[in-house]
Structure formats: C-alpha cells, structure tokens
Amino acid sequence: MTTTYKKVFWAAGFGWMFDAMDVALLSFIMVALRQEWGLTGEEAGLLGTGNLVGMAIGAMLGGYLADRIGRKPVFLYTLILFGAASLASAFATGFLAMLLLRFCMGLGLGAELPVASTLVNEFAPPEKRGRTVVLLESFWAVGWLIAAVIAYFIIPDYGWRMAVILGALPILYAFFVRKNIPESPQYKPQTERIPVQKLMTEHKRETITLWVVWFAIAFSYYGMFLWMPSVLVDKGFTMIQSFQYVLIMTLAQLPGYFAAAYLVENWGRKQTLATFLFMTAVLAYAFGESSGTASLLITGALLSFFNLGAWGALYAYTPENYPTPLRGTGSGFAAGVGRVGSIIAPYLVGYFSGLHYGYPFIFGMFTVVLLLGTGTLLFLGKETREPKRTALV
C-alpha cells in the first residue's frame, strides 16, 4: 500500500464504521422507544423505513453527484449531514420528529456508502481491488459491534439519548477527511449531464443483475437485523439478554468479511457472492425455525457470517461492472434500487408481526427473496475479476 492508498482506505473505513454504528443503534433504540413512547410494531417499522427511504434517495443522488462534482466533496458533506441529524435526533420528543430526522440521516448514509466504495476502488491496485473493498466493508461490522456495546452498556443505565449522541461523532471526523483525503486519480470533472440512460442501454444486463441482487440482499439484511433485538424479545428474552445475544451474533460478521475478502481474489467475485447469498437464504430459514437459545445463537451467528460476507462481495463486485464515467452513478443507482427492498422489509416485519404471523413465515419470506437474487446472479451476472497473470517459463 502507498501512503495515499492507506490514507484513503482508513479514512473511508472509519466513515463506514460510523455509518454502521448509526444504522445499528436504531435496531436497539427501537426496543427502548417501543417501551418509552408506546410505539406500535408498525410505527417502529416506519422509523426503519423512513431512514431507508432517505438512504434510497441519497444513494442515487450521491452516486450521480460523485460523477459530476467529485468523490471527495460528496463523501465529506454526507458525513456532516448524517452526523448533524444524528445529534439532533437525540433531542427528539416524539415519533414524527424522530421519523424526519431518521430520514435526513438516511440521505447522508445512503449517499456516502457507494461513493466511499467507488473512491477506494479507484485508488486500490488492480490485483488487490476486490479484497480491499471487501475489507472496507468489514468496518461495517466494527460499527455494529460498537453499537451493540453502546446499547448493552449505555442504554440500560443512561438511556437511548446518550447512545444517539455518540452517533454524532462523524461531524468531527468530517474535518479530518477534508484535510487528508485526495480526490480520486481516475475522476475527471464532467461539465455535461451524466447520460443515466446508458445504465439501461449499453449496460442493461449488468444493471438488471445488480438491481435484483441489491434488492434481495438489502431486503433481507434490513428486515432481519433491524428487527433482531425485537425478535429475540418476542421469543422470550429480556431486553438486556437480546442486546447481549445480538452482540455475540455480530462478532461473526468479521470472519464473514475476511472469508469473502480471500475468496473474491482467489475464487472470483460472482461465485463468492452467489455462494454467500445462497447460504444466507438457508440460514434465514433455519433461524426462523429456531427457538432454543443454542440454536438461535448458532444460526444467528452463521446468518451474520454469510450475510455480511455477501455484502462485502457485492460492494467489490458492483463498481467493476461500469466504466469510470458511470461508476459512481451505476453504483449509486444499484444501491438506491436495492434500498427499495430495505424500505419495504422493516415495515413488512412490523406488519406481519402485528397480525401475529410467526417468525418461520417471516424469515421464510427472506429465504425466497434471497434465492431469487442468487438465481439472477448465476444466470445473468458476469465475472469481473481480472485474470491473474502467469509467469512465462
């Protein structure tokens, strides 16, 4: 790694970590808000949905702006936006105020993620590009772990507001980014409008594949993990126990990323992503059928391992499907369409649980969607890993 490459990787990684911390805190805060504000299951689901509507809009807008005005400024200002909204949400006094602020946070979060992966992708050496982007994704697991630790140690004694205030740290981090991250060497300023229609003309096959896979993985991830603490409470555990068990499950995310980082370079992007997606589908079904503590922890940990490994492979795979002038736009639109799934899923979980549908049914729904995504990738997706050069003998 060159000095600049290291600087970009670590700076983007810490930004990603803060993103994950904010998203994860919502899953724990929902448990506390349902008790403190008396929210219904549907209202709690709407908080997740409002956040994800913002992420869908932010992903498309952020990717487009990254191709128009540059990767660095978009990355910087999105950090400030979601950090400021996070701080303000600590002082929310009711459901509607929290819903609006979670939407604003979503705008920043959604725009930052595809821009950060594009930025790192364009700085990474070709032979390390896939591994590097997956390792960037591993910061997401670190953010979830920090959020789980905050929830376990802070929320019970100091309340959810103190936990949310800690999510405002990206505001300070943004000033570090401004001074230390260079613009991508591959970015060329564009004075004309980005031809977005090329996504569905010149790159139709790649775009359809990515949109379906992004929908499947975002639908399953946000539907399952935003509700995970609540699911455990509904299965008979206390709030403290549910936070503790989610923390244990979250630990399995890191080896999932590391396994995917190794496989995308040595096995290929497409095969790694398809395998991890398929195993996520299998484990989603198994988790929904589990009831005892041991089976819940084992299937939950494996679900975290494969689902987050799939996320890492997807972030490595997505930018490589498009040329440089369309890379930010293509990645952003794929993420934005995927967020449609993440918007629908949390609400559906709240809706079905309100109708007293069992978790085998709800997690079976995730299994079906993941299998559809896996099939689309296998039949339409292409391999993007560059062939390894062999020495002449």
> What about the largest sheet?
none
* Poorly predicted runs: 389-393
Return the structural class.
mainly alpha
Q: N- to C-terminal separation? A: 29 Å
Instruction: Give the topology string: H per helix, E per strand.
Output: HHHHHHHHHHHHHHHH
**Assembly level:** single chain
Helix content: over 70%
Radius of gyration: 20 Å
The share of residues in extended strands comes to under 5%
Based on Cα principal axes, name the global outline: globular
Quickly count the helices: 16
Mean pLDDT over the full residue set: 83
| E-strand count | 0
Report on the architecture of this protein.
By secondary structure, the chain is an all-alpha fold. 79% of the residues lie in helices and 0% in strands. The protein has helices at 3-36, 41-68, 71-89, 95-123, 129-153, 155-158, 160-166, 170-180, 204-225, 228-234, 239-251, 253-266, 269-289, 293-317, 324-354, 359-380. It is globular and about 55 Å long.
A few lines on this structure:
The chain is mostly helical and 393 residues long. 79% of the residues lie in helices and 0% in strands. Helix 2 (41-68) packs antiparallel against helix 3, helix 5 runs antiparallel to helix 14 and helix 9 (204-225) packs parallel to helix 15 (324-354).
